[in-house]
Amino acid sequence: MATTRITENFTLEELCHSDTAAARGLKNIPDEDQVDNLKRLAINLLQPVRDRYGKAMHINSGFRSPEVNKAVNGSPTSDHMHGKAADVRTDNPRELFDLVRKSGLSFDQLILYPSFVHMSFRYNANRNQVLYAKGVHP
Ligand SMILES: [Zn+2]
Known about the structure:
With about 140 residues, this protein is α+β, with helices and mostly antiparallel strands. The chain has 5 helices and 5 strands, in the order H-H-H-E-H-E-H-E-E-E. Zinc ion binds next to strand 2.
């Protein structure tokens, strides 16, 4: 399968991969607008974060079709369904979270989970919200 590189470290394919979708045979293909959003997310947030972080960032989940979002118990209004969010796993999620929080980069929501960081980018409508998932202390 062809690989579409968006930025130095991120491809369209990894932003559309879902273990759950693969395991259950669910379709997870973004339309043109959703691809545009994924590109904005990678160019304006993921890659600048990666450049500052300097270490591996694994995308647990980027784009999710409505079926996939339901399968992973995502929020019914999830930005993942628009290609505007990614869940990023690293060796140290809190370290990554702190870096993004203090980076001065524009984002919509930054959420620390026990094993990953959710970060979203809403073109022209970023709120720079910093949040903690249930059970994660600030
Ligand atoms: Zn997320």
